């Protein structure tokens, strides 16, 4: 991990988290020990994030060269690709607390005082070293030429512009959005770095499943690499959180049925294949050639007749079964 600056205590009105007006409703969440273990990203994204950590580790060298370090980061990508987990990983790697502000809830709940509330959280995050995550960033940083928006949100954009320009290098501001096309261009240009997180490829999905399997209780039994790899190939189009949810579902079913997790994962693989006729032949072929199941076992798993399995294997052929990757 990168050693953080000393004096990491956040200070705001006596150390308390800012609240909405005179109420006890906190405007942000603070995680003093964020956990980003298990983050799996494509090589290019992970490399750029690692550069940010390297900058913070060698900040004195950058200062001596008259160069500042990255203070602000914009993360974009589809839901579930790991934007929040990335912020946790950065905070954990920098040994800093993670302050999270869900901007969509602040704007919808406190319209009229949104600007003041957001400014209070930003001031709080600047009071001591931390990683500040502004989730659902497009909720407050939309294009100012959007006539559908009210004046309050346009004023907030101006506040955000000023804050991004003045953000100190003692804290890292991370903004996350599913809709980067909605952001005001002036806001997007203010970020020191911008990283677009993509849906995980088959290699990343396999790594997610391997990490999850490594943390599974020993009573659940082991899952062979070939079955994990097949599951990774079949989940084309899944986000990282989709893969994790699938694994969690498999684990819950294994516990409820007192069954081995590998057997239940095979059932899930078969279900994915049976749900899409376009890939059923490929699933049946892979279950036979790569997992070694009999025609009868495949028929029971996929929920088709024995003759249907035989016909499917005949259509795909031995060469295709052995060499064709399973994908949508």
UniProtKB/TrEMBL annotation:
<dbReference type="InterPro" id="IPR003593">
    <property type="entry name" value="AAA+_ATPase"/>
</dbReference>
<keyword id="KW-0067">ATP-binding</keyword>
<dbReference type="InterPro" id="IPR003959">
    <property type="entry name" value="ATPase_AAA_core"/>
</dbReference>
<feature type="domain" description="AAA+ ATPase">
    <location>
        <begin position="69"/>
        <end position="201"/>
    </location>
</feature>
<dbReference type="InterPro" id="IPR027417">
    <property type="entry name" value="P-loop_NTPase"/>
</dbReference>
<dbReference type="InterPro" id="IPR050221">
    <property type="entry name" value="26S_Proteasome_ATPase"/>
</dbReference>
<keyword id="KW-0547">Nucleotide-binding</keyword>
<comment type="similarity">
    <text>Belongs to the AAA ATPase family.</text>
</comment>
<dbReference type="GO" id="GO:0005524">
    <property type="term" value="F:ATP binding"/>
</dbReference>
<dbReference type="Pfam" id="PF00004">
    <property type="entry name" value="AAA"/>
</dbReference>
<protein>
    <submittedName>
        <fullName>ATP-binding protein</fullName>
    </submittedName>
</protein>
């Amino acid at each position: 991990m990168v050693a953080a600056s000393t004096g990491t205590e956040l200070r705001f009105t006596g150390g308390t988290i800012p609240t909405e007006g005179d109420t006890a409703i906190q405007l942000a969440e603070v995680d003093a020990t964020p956990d980003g273990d298990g983050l799996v990203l494509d090589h290019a994204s992970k490399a750029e994030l690692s550069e940010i950590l390297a900058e913070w580790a060698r900040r004195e060298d950058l200062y001596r060269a008259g160069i500042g370090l990255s203070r602000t980061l914009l993360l974009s990508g589809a839901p579930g690709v790991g934007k929040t987990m990335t912020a946790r990983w950065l905070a954990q790697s920098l040994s800093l607390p993670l302050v999270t502000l869900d901007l969509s809830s602040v704007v919808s709940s406190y319209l009229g005082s949104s600007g003041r509330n957001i400014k209070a959280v930003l001031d709080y995050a600047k009071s001591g070293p931390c990683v500040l995550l502004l989730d659902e960033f497009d909720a407050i940083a939309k294009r100012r030429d959007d006539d559908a928006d009210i004046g309050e949100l346009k004023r907030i954009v101006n506040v955000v512009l000023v804050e991004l320009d003045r953000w100190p290098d003692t804290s890292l501001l991370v903004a996350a959005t599913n809709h980067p096309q909605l952001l005001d261009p002036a806001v997007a240009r203010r970020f020191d770095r911008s990283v677009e997180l993509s849906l995980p490829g088959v290699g990343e999905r396999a790594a997610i499943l391997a990490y999850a399997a490594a943390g599974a209780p020993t009573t659940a039994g082991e899952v062979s690499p070939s079955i994990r790899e097949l599951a990774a190939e079949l989940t084309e189009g899944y986000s990282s959180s989709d893969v994790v949810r699938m694994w969690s579902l498999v684990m819950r079913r294994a516990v409820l049925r007192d069954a081995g997790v590998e057997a239940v994962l095979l059932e899930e693989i078969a279900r994915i294949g049976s749900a899409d006729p376009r890939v059923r032949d490929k699933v049946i072929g892979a279950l036979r050639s790569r997992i070694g199941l009999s025609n009868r076992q495949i028929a029971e798993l996929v929920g088709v007749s024995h003759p249907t399995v035989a016909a499917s294997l005949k259509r795909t052929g031995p060469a295709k079964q052995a060499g064709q990757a399973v994908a949508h």
